[in-house]
Amino acid sequence: MTSITLRKLCKTYEGSKHPAVENFDLEIEPGELVAFLGPSGCGKTTTLKMIAGLHSVTRGDVLFNGVRVNDIKPERREVVMVYQNYLLFPYMNVAENVGFGLRMRKTPKDETDRRVAEILKLVQLEGYGHRSSAQLSGGQKQRVALARALVIRPKILLLDEPLANLDAHLRDEMRDLILDIHKKFEVTTVFVTHDQEEAVLLADRIALIFDGKLVQYSHSKDFYEKPASERISRFFGNGNIIEGTKAGTTVTTGSGAFQVRPGLPAADGPVQLVIRPESIRLSREESNSFKALILKKIYMGTYTRYCFEADGHIWDTTTESNEIPGYEAGDSAWFTLPQDKIWLIER
């Protein structure tokens, strides 16, 4: 298996004053599945193409297993890339498309046929070998593209928004297939997406990219519970973010003073208190609680969403619909912020 290291990686396109990728530092472990996540134009695909060798590096280094590969041609990197546009050869049938890379490597025909049959079975296209690509659905074409990439047994698999052109049902199927394939082949995999849910469901770790810069690299849970900035918290959903002042393990806000757990990485002074809506509890009066006016109640089946206000601050919470019945818009209620669910961001 192969590790990937990006060291101070930069890319500036000719004629541009601003770098597309800037001082990108990243370590991907052998066999890991990592998502490059971010809004359109943030540098995700540019970084992916520098790993593949399809874009030159302006500054910095790309290393595989600690060996610098900046000057190694794409075809010698043992890296394959799958795009959202399947790029199948229209004049070849499915088996010929899948076996193309093996034929280019002068692999014996009997071995090529065997490996093509094996990979088509794995991607659930057994018996489709003689079909034309024109006879395939979008999901089937993406499976063929994935099979063509994997049949040559690459050291690194790069996926550039591979599910973007599929409908919701097919995306779910392809997610499961990608996870199954990754588990079987244990190939180091990087995929690009702008979909937070997709990144969370698929990736071991997520590299979040804004404006060409890596802003947080961690496990998915950390983006929800330990965001590095307000922008990151908002990118990952409707987290409650309240201005306050920290002194020791107490944070004073307009809605009240709250105890936080020791050791949070925020110095005393101005902070932003962050807590997920699902972490706030409707409660009877107790510690770390405050009284607020319910502005809105939205029934969502299993869950109910409450929007409430305290001293000019608007909060959101979601709670199980059968947990504490009886509250309606216009009622006052006590809300608890569990100490272990509070995160702080220095201002």
Give a written overview of the molecule.
The protein is an alpha+beta fold and 347 residues long. The chain folds into two domains: 4-225, Rossmann fold (3-Layer(aba) Sandwich); 238-346, OB fold (Dihydrolipoamide Acetyltransferase, E2P). The chain is built from nine helices and 20 strands. The strands form four sheets. It has a six-stranded mixed β-sheet, with helices on both faces. A five-stranded antiparallel β-sheet has the order 13-12-11-14-20, with no helix packed on it. Strands 15-19-16-17-18 form a five-stranded antiparallel β-sheet, with no helix packed on it. A hairpin with a 2-residue loop joins strand 16 (289-300) and strand 17. The chain is elongated, with a radius of gyration of 25 Å.
Class based on secondary structure composition and strand pairing:
alpha+beta
Number of domains: 2
The biggest sheet amounts to: 6 strands, mixed
Quote the distance from N terminus to C terminus: 41 Å
Helix content: 10-25%
Features:
347 residues; alpha+beta; Rossmann fold; OB fold (Dihydrolipoamide Acetyltransferase, E2P); 2 domains; six-stranded mixed beta sheet; 9 helices; 35% strand; elongated
Write the layout of secondary structure elements.
Blueprint: E1 4-11, E2 21-28, E3 33-37, H1 44-52, E4 59-64, E5 67-68, E6 79-83, H2 94-98, H3 100-104, H4 109-122, H5 138-150, E7 156-160, H6 168-185, E8 188-193, H7 196-202, E9 205-210, E10 213-218, H8 220-225, H9 230-235, E11 240-247, E12 250-253, E13 256-259, E14 269-275, E15 281-283, E16 289-300, E17 303-310, E18 313-320, E19 332-336, E20 343-346
Parallel strand pairs: 3-8, 3-9, 6-7, 7-8
Antiparallel strand pairs: 1-2, 1-4, 4-5, 9-10, 11-12, 11-14, 12-13, 14-20, 15-19, 16-17, 16-19, 17-18
